[in-house]
């Protein structure tokens, strides 16, 4: 895979995405009155911290009630930003290694 930092980072990313998905599961469970409800703000905060893909999968798969237009737009923007950042991270690492070989470093 790579360095241990990459391994830890990927496991952390997986954990935050599973947590984001479970927020939608929690919101759909019928616990009765007085239970904690998951707000759009909380979901977006978790998505901002790296759980955007898990939040999007939970939203689409579970047909959750979080459906304002602004929420969906923010969620899709966060997914796009995280995918670009992920691609840039691995792309720059690959490019850096290739440049090093070309330059003989």
In terms of structural class, how would the helical and strand content be classed?
mainly alpha
Please, how many domains?
A: 1
Main pleated sheet: none
> Would you list the SSEs in sequence order as H and E?
HHH
* Mean pLDDT across residues: 82
Low-confidence stretches: none
Number of helices: 3
Shape: elongated
Distance between the termini: 22 Å
Number of strands: 0
Residue share in β-strands: under 5%
What is the gyration radius calculated from CA atoms?
18 Å
Helical proportion, percent range: over 70%
Keywords: Membrane, Transmembrane, Transmembrane helix
Protein name: DUF1294 domain-containing protein
Transmembrane segments: 7-29, 41-61, 73-92
Organism: Methylobrevis albus
């Amino acid at each position: 895979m790579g360095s241990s930092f990459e391994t830890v980072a990927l496991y952390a990313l997986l954990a935050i995405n599973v947590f984001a998905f479970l927020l939608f599961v929690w919101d759909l469970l019928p616990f009765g009155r007085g239970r904690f409800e998951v707000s759009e703000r909380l979901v977006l905060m978790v998505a901002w911290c790296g759980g955007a893909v898990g939040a999007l999968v939970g939203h689409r798969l579970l047909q959750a009630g979080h459906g304002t237009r602004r929420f969906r737009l923010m969620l899709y923007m966060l997914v796009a930003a995280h995918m670009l950042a992920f691609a840039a991270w691995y792309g720059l690492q690959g490019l850096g290694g290739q440049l090093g070989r070309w330059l003989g470093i």
